[in-house]
Specification:
It contains 6 helices and 6 strands; from the N terminus they run βααββαβαβαβα. The protein has 2 domains: 3-108, Alpha-Beta Plaits; 111-139, no CATH class. With 139 residues, it is α+β, with helices and mostly antiparallel strands.
């Protein structure tokens, strides 16, 4: 079966994460790899006050994970995350194949380069002129 790339956003218990950040990180990574996933990026995103209380939690630590796995194994990950003590909520989405590389590069903190032909210089168009993705997104 073909593997797809998924993004999982988790809201973690801030107190649990503050006591053992390495353990929580490892627990999330272990859940993904034990289900058969290949983790690309597994990192802290931010910590902030929640819009509304969730199970009496006022604050949450947001965690991002990007990984490849077969789609039929997603329910196993979902169940394991429901049972994990530090996880308050989570959401998993399948990434669009053409967006995988830019999203992973951004998550790793790398600069994103895209090739596009330019109308002004045909010689550059043949070589593939490089532009910054942030500039391209603004255009």
């Amino acid at each position: 079966m073909a593997k797809n790339t998924y993004e999982t956003l988790l809201i973690l218990d801030s107190n649990h994460y503050a006591r053992d950040p390495g353990g929580v990180s490892k627990q999330v990574s272990d859940i993904l790899t034990e289900a058969g996933g290949e983790v690309h990026v597994n990192r802290l995103w931010m910590e902030q006050k929640l819009a509304y209380p969730i199970d009496k939690h006022q604050k949450g630590t947001y965690w991002l994970a990007y990984y490849d796995i077969e789609g039929v194994k997603i329910p196993a990950i979902d169940r394991a995350l429901h049972l994990a003590e530090p996880v308050i909520r989570h959401l998993t989405v399948k990434l669009e194949p053409r967006l995988i590389e830019p999203i992973l590069a951004n998550a790793r903190g790398e600069s994103i380069k895209m090739s596009t032909p330019t109308d002004s210089n045909p010689e550059e168009a043949e070589d593939g002129a490089e532009i910054d993705a942030e500039v391209a997104a603004d255009a």
